[in-house]
C-alpha cells in the first residue's frame, strides 16, 4: 500500500543501526531464521536487495550466475555495501509510485505493493533477527509494528506456502502488536540463542 511508503525510512534507519553493531566475530551466531547464521542472513540481504530495488524501479531484474547460497557476498566491504543498498531501497520504496501497479520479481509478475511489503519485512523482521542473534536492542515504531502485523496477516498463508514464513507461533495473551507480527511470520518473540 502506498501509505506504507512513509514507514520505509524509519524502518531502514533502525535496520542500518543494527548492521553497524555487527562484528565479524558474530558472523557464526545463530539467528531466529533456522536456515541462517548471521553471515548467511547478511548474504541473503545482499543477494535479494538488487532484485527488490529493480522491482521498485520497475526495471529488469539483475542477472545472476549463482544462487543465493553460492553467492558469497559477505566480503570485507559488506557493511558499506549493505548500507548503500539499504539507502537505495529506502529511496525507491519511500515513494508511493514504487508501490503502485505491477512489477517483476523472481521471473514473474506481481503487484508492486508485494515488493514493498518484502522490503519492509526485510528491514523489520531481518533487523530483529540480526538484533536477537547479536544481543542488540531493536526498536519498532508503533505505526511500523501495525504495518508489518497487517502485512503478515494479509500474506501469511501465501508466504508459508512459499516457505518465506514459518508455521505461525502462538504468542502470549497480551502480546504487543509487534510480537503478534513476529508470531505470524513463524518467529518466537522470546527466542534466545
Explain what the structure shows.
This protein is mainly alpha-helical. It has one domain (2-184): Up-down Bundle (Four Helix Bundle (Hemerythrin (Met), subunit A)), CATH 1.20.120.450. The chain contains seven helices and two strands; from the N terminus they run ααααββααα. The chain has helices at 5-20, 38-57, 68-71, 78-93, 112-134, 142-161, 177-184, and strands at 102-105, 108-111. It has a two-stranded antiparallel ribbon. Helix 2 runs parallel beside helix 4. The termini are far apart.
Structure keywords:
193 residues; mainly alpha; Four Helix Bundle (Hemerythrin (Met), subunit A); two-stranded antiparallel ribbon; 7 helices; 2 strands; 4% strand
Q: Quick summary of this structure?
A:
InterPro entries: CHP03086 (IPR017520), DinB/YfiT-like (IPR034660), Maleyloyr_isom (IPR017517), MDMPI_metal-binding (IPR024344). The protein has 193 residues and is mainly alpha-helical.
The fraction of residues assigned to DSSP E strands is under 5%
Overall body shape: globular
Counted by DSSP, the helix tally is 7
- Which architecture would the CATH scheme give at its second level? Up-down Bundle
**What share of residues is helical?**
55-70%
| Structural class category | mainly alpha
Order of helices and strands: HHHHEEHHH
Give the C-alpha Rg: 16 Å
Q: Considering the protein shown, what is the CATH homologous superfamily?
A: dinb family like domain
How would you characterize the largest beta sheet? Answer: 2 strands, antiparallel
